[in-house]
Amino acid sequence: MDTFTLWRSNIVAMLHDLLWIPLAIGGAFWLRFNLETIPDAQLPACYALITLALPVQFLSFYAFGLYRGIWRFASLPDLMRIVRAVAVGCLVSFALLFLWSRVEGLPRSVFFLYPLILILGLAVPRMLYRWIKDRHLNFSRVERKRALIVGAGQAGELLVRDLLKTGPYEPIGFLDDAARRQGQEIHGVRVLGRLDDLVRVIQHRGVEVVLLAMPSAAHAVIQGVVQQCQGLSVVCRTLPSVSELADGRVEVSRLRQVEIEDLLGRDAIMIDRQGVNGLIQGQVVMVTGAGGSIGSELCRQLLLYHPSALVMVDHGEYNLYQIEMELLKQNQSDSDVYAQLGDIRDQLRMSIIIDQFKPVVIFNAAAYKHVPLVEENPVEGIRTNVFGTCALADLAVSHGVQKFIQVSTDKAVNPTNVMGTTKRIAEIYCQNLNREGEVTQFITTRFGNVLGSAGSVVPLFRKQIEAGGPVTLTHPDITRYFMTIPEAVTLILQAASMGRGGEIFVLDMGEPVKIIDLARQMIRLMGLEPERDIAIEVTGLRPGEKLYEELFHDSELLSSTDHPKILLSPSRIIPLYQVQNELKLLQKCCDLSDYRGIYRALQQLVPESVLQENNRFID
Fold this sequence. Notes:
Blueprint: H1 3-32, H2 43-63, H3 76-100, H4 110-134, E1 145-150, H5 154-165, E2 169-175, E3 185-186, E4 189-193, H6 198-205, E5 209-212, H7 219-231, E6 235-238, E7 256-257, H8 260-264, H9 273-280, E8 284-288, H10 293-303, E9 309-314, H11 317-330, E10 336-341, H12 347-357, E11 361-364, H13 371-376, H14 378-398, E12 403-409, H15 418-436, E13 441-447, E14 449-451, H16 457-466, E15 471-473, E16 479-480, E17 482-484, H17 485-498, E18 504-507, E19 513-514, H18 515-525, E20 536-538, E21 559-560, E22 566-569, H19 576-591, H20 595-605
Parallel strand pairs: 1-2, 1-5, 2-4, 5-6, 8-9, 8-11, 9-10, 11-12, 12-13, 13-18, 14-17, 15-20
Antiparallel strand pairs: 3-4, 6-7, 16-19, 18-22, 21-22
Helix pairs in contact: 1-2, 1-4, 2-3, 3-4, 9-17, 10-17, 12-14, 14-15, 16-18, 19-20
């Protein structure tokens, strides 16, 4: 709103309020005399009160900020300001009237009727103006889609309030399972039933869009609502999750399309914040691979626990720059944030960084993880995932780092590819290095695929659907475990605080998901029909790819922990000198590009692996 418009609006509001002062006084006298003409004997008192009240009441209005508010958004605080301004103005006016000795002929009822009428005269037009604007009662009204809101809690209340002001949707009702909500109205919008009534309400009320206002609802509930909407060809939109609504703002603009993450994610994880806080708060923490999907989320969540400094290391300039800018902008703590370019394979560079910042905890999320790419570039995968990790682990010991958390993968279990084998070797090295030292505790966390991570199947499918298809998968029976990135990182932090050294913490991934079902669900979420609008093609398993993933070896006896989502796998004892000797052989084969020797060395280090030698490298 420009300055001229603002002044014009304020002048109109002032004139309106000033007009109501004589109207309220005259109305008070009129009511006192039973809606008849005011007797001539009472007129001097009436005129005297008007004369005094006009300037006094106006100054009171101004002092209490009646013209700082905007009629369009009049609310309870504005009403309270009106009440206070009228009360003070009336008291001062009556006091001056007594001092002026012009109270002869002033009926006592006027002392009560005048402020009451004035409050109504000031408040009702403001509230009526807001109601008219909220309901869009004007001739240029644009037809809006009829919307059903699922969830009549706080988020639903805030959403419907915003919808009544603006937005492309007209709220026609709520659904909520709470018994106390049934039949109630929220801002004039009625609760029409429970979630079980969804289909009936959609069909009988002509619903065109369903809005999910349940940020903390169980994912099974969201899945049920979305599936019913898909069956009726009704569009479904949702508010973000609780973690995404951390700022508390619930607005129409934050409604978004239901994503596959909303359906495949699990219910909110309880975390021992005190334990994690004890590990992180006031400490220097270092994250390698900080520009990646897991590494960047680690950095975001670590800042919530107020480390004295967060050192982010990555060899990718752009990704590191992005997370640095994001954290510097959002950092509300007193933590220092440092972005350091470096490759974990560069032992000298890593030594300089560790020596400079002296981290107490290191999270190693740096790795090559794309199975087909590592299968085609085995030497590079080994140099990063094996030798880079081992060198970083050795530096952690020599520099007295207290905890080293190695981020691993389910592909390290009975691996059938080079990537999984390299990650398993890193696990073995860290576990057995833990036995040799007394200072550094080595903790490994193992989990499956994370939704939305770089190179994962979800963004690939999304791009293929947006391009019109086809969606490609390697086998109709292939299954994978899935977890959201924030969920995986939350459990990594929890495991880090629980670990005492040498453990492999296996994160509970829930039930595996068939990839073909995932593809079909994603197609439907984008308003299309599988096989009709978007084709699904099976291309065949790639080298090193498994039909299903495993989270632990047959010989690993998992035990429960204090956290229901985290299981503990005991370490497998292998003499460290034996591992180091075999790694020297692997290093020599890599230096000579002896691929046959590389495969033999990998097999010797991880006997349970089933590797298929890439014919392109083997003569």
